[in-house]
């Protein structure tokens, strides 16, 4: 009888705490439902961690030019990113803790839907600035990575660029493995349902245990397959 009373009191207190959290907008019934759905979905459809094959780290190619080209404070870049957030996923309810990531995914959707791959001149690399690429949404992998990184950073996301032997591609910081559960659910069930149907979410984990997700022009959804090459370097923009 005493144990039953204690259990009932604990349940009542728990419900009161959730009700209070719902009223003041912190953590309530909606948030616990989102957590439960994300956990159950991840248990049945695990994302796939791609091992990072790191060769001897080399200097990031054209590092200074690339950093200067990522014009995330340029009004044209920010206005483009804002436009993308009003065009895609604006009506998504809940998931307030992941608003920035959802908005960055909107940027990904807009850029990758419009991107046209064009080679550099034969004489060597041409590094286009983010504002240049906004003109025609065309260029090679480094031009795409620069525009993606600039637009993502302009609205509060944390991007990084990965350098492999013959490729550069952008990633976005998702957070912890718990955050990955939520983002996995969002991609597969809310944001990119058609594009990711029957597909696996790929990601990297860095030396600090943080999860990074692929935003390459070859990906149809965030976390699409990587181009499997050894990683020679990473350029984090924060």
UniProtKB/TrEMBL annotation:
- Which InterPro entries does the protein's record reference? Papain-like_cys_pep_sf
Q: Does the keyword Transmembrane apply?
A: yes
User: What protein is this chain from?
Assistant: Transglutaminase
Q: Where are the transmembrane segments?
A: 6-29
Swiss-Prot/TrEMBL keywords: Membrane, Transmembrane, Transmembrane helix
């Amino acid at each position: 009888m005493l144990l039953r009373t204690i259990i009932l009191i604990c349940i009542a207190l728990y419900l009161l705490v959730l009700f209070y959290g719902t009223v003041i907008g912190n953590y309530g019934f909606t948030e616990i439902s989102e957590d439960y759905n994300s956990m159950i979905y991840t248990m049945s459809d695990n994302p796939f961690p791609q091992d990072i094959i790191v060769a001897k780290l080399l200097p990031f190619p054209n590092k200074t030019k690339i950093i200067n080209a990522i014009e995330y404070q340029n009004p044209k870049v920010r206005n483009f990113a804002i436009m993308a957030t009003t065009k895609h996923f604006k009506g998504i309810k809940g998931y307030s803790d992941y608003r920035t990531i959802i908005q960055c995914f909107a940027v990904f959707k807009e850029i990758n839907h419009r991107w046209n791959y064009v080679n550099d001149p034969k004489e060597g690399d041409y590094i286009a600035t983010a504002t240049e690429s906004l003109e025609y949404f065309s260029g090679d992998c480094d031009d795409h990575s620069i525009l993606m990184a600039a637009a993502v950073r302009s609205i509060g996301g944390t991007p990084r660029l990965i350098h492999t032997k013959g490729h550069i591609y952008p990633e976005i910081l998702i957070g912890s493995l718990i955050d990955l559960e939520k983002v996995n659910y969002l991609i597969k069930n809310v944001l990119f349902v058609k594009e990711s149907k029957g597909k696996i979410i790929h990601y990297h984990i860095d030396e600090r245990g943080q999860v990074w997700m692929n935003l390459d022009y070859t990906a149809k959804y965030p976390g699409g397959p990587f181009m499997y090459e050894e990683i020679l370097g990473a350029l984090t923009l924060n």
